[in-house]
Structure formats: C-alpha cells, structure tokens
Amino acid sequence: MEQLKKKLEEVIDFDIKEIDKIWGEDDIKTLEENYKLKLPQDYEFYLQHYGNDYIKEDYRFIPSLDLPKKIKQTQFEIDSIYGLYNDENKIDNKANYYKSILPTDLFPIADLPGKDLICIGKSDDKKNKIYIWFHEMEGENVFLVSDSFEGFIQDFKSIKVTKNNLDNVKLNLGDKLNALLNNASKKI
C-alpha cells in the first residue's frame, strides 16, 4: 500500500481537503453490506485514510489500457473521488443517486465533469476492475480503464496546465461595444 499512499499524496489537492478523519473497518463493512459488494483491499485503504477528495487541477487520468476508437479522449479530468464523510462527495449519496441509471454490476467511486462516472465492478469478470461510464453515449457506454483501484490511481499523470492571465487573454468585442468601453474608459 506504500506505492498507493505515495501516489495519493501526490495527486490529491490537500489545499481544499477539509476532512482529516480515519474511518474504521465497521464503516466500510456497513457500506459493503448496504450495497451487496466486497471492496478490494486497495480501495478499502483509500476509504479508510482518504476519501471525499478533489484531484489537483494539473493531474489527469491517462488510462494505460487501450480504449476503443469511439472514445476520442486520451486523458480524463477527474473532479472528485468519493468517500465516507457526509458532504457532496459522500459515496452513499452518489450510489443512491445513480442506482437507477447505472448498470447493476457497477458501483460509482468518482466523477468526471459532465456527470460521467468512474465505477468499480461488483461482480463476475468485472469484480474490482475500474470502468468509465459515459452517461450520454449511445450503445455501449461502459469501458474498462484499469484492472485495479491502485492501477487507476497510478495512471494519474501531471500535465502542463496553462493558466490565464491578462497577457494571454484576448477578447473579441463587437465594434459598438468596443467603442462604448473606450469612451467609458476615457471618462474615468
């Protein structure tokens, strides 16, 4: 678990993390019983020691497994990874919200912008593997992205994020609005 812990410490945005609580095994057992699943050890470790986390803005999930050609993206922004704490990323709330639309063999563990989800497989050949579920995609919309939770976390990579400042922002204004603003600025 040391490699997993090291990578989590690298990718979690601790500047906005408000929760500093370790969860007991009883909390995880209750979750498993409520949703009829058995979580893998690496994900249990995450839930116990982390959870309800946002990922640093300069990190993206870049799957090491090949995705079908119909998926045009090669990297994915992950908004948050759910946890046990009672806030907007509480795993119980998310699981209940999505239960009527997610396939029954998937359990949500994280989200992407636009309501797509990262899920863990619950049964059979999907068990403990990590999938992306695209909610608006026609036809097949569930794709394997990692063989384990730890593999999923290890596939986060730092990317270069261009931050906007006044030097690299260009506004295209209509002629009338531009003239109005120029006149207003001369009066100040």
From TrEMBL:
Domain Knr4/Smi1-like: 24-155
SMART domains for the chain: SMI1_KNR4 (SM00860)
SUPFAM superfamilies per the UniProt record, alphabetical: SMI1/KNR4-like (SSF160631)
Listed transmembrane segments: none
Pfam family, one: SMI1_KNR4
Protein name: SMI1-KNR4 cell-wall
